[in-house]
Amino acid sequence: xxxxxxxLARGHDRDVVVVVGDLDGASVSRLHELVGxxxxxxxxxxxxxxxxxxxxxxxxxxxxxxxRQLLDDLGGSLVLRSPTDFTRKxxxxxxxxxxxxxxx
Length: 104
Fold this sequence. Notes:
By secondary structure, this protein is of the alpha/beta class. It has a single domain (5-103), classed as Transcription Regulator spoIIAA. Helix content is 37%, strand content 33%. Strands 1-2-3-4-5 form a 5-stranded mixed β-sheet, sandwiched between helices. It is globular, with a radius of gyration of 12 Å.
């Protein structure tokens, strides 16, 4: 068991994906798959709840960027909810702190 999980809460106007554990090269494909499934089912606005994400590396950041771009291309959005201090620091160090909408 790798300790990584994605929990989905479907909503009227947007879907919330709770990321649990490490978002890295070993897990990012699961995020891609879920976002692709959401898009196929008609979702255009997705919130990534990062309050339970314990680690993110460059591959995980790339996955979040790819998901954001896919949704943006369809007129939708990807918003980050409750990123931890660590995640905020990683986003800032990568120059991505202004790229994503963030809600608390």
